[in-house]
Amino acid sequence: MAVDEQNELPEATQREAELQMQLDGLQIQVTELHKTREEANPELSSEFQSLKEKFSEHSKQLEQSAEKLSQLKLENLDLRDEN
Q1: Whole-angstrom Cα distance, residue 34 to residue 23?
Q2: What is the CA 8 to chain-centroid distance, rounded?
Q3: What is the CA radius of gyration of the chain?
Q4: How far apart are CA 32 and CA 21, in angstroms?
């Protein structure tokens, strides 16, 4: 059994080295992904803020249009009553 254990040790060490290399590669990829995300986020944040402002403007315009429509409907009813 001592011979088998000696043969297994180098294989286990080799496998551990392979796994460590894979882990190192994955850690590099994760680091690169984090950097990419950090670089992209300011652009996305800026675009989101711009869209949010446009949405707010359109919402205000829609609200004003709804009020105007309501006024016109009332005027229309008044004119019908006069006729």
Answers
A1: 16
A2: 48
A3: 34
A4: 17
SS3 state at 1: coil
Write 36-40 long-range contacts (CB < 8 A, 24+). none
The two structure tokens encoding residue 41: 């986020």
Put simply, whether the predicted model's pTM sits higher than 0.90 gets the answer: no
Which residues, other chains included, contact 80 with Cβ-Cβ below 8 Å and sequence gap of 6+? none
C-alpha angle 34-37-41 in degrees, rounded to nearest 5: 145
Q: Give tens-digit pLDDT for 14-33.
A: 888 899 999 999 999 999 98
83 DSSP 8-state letter: -
Q: For residue 6, what pLDDT band results from cuts at 50, 70 and 90?
A: low
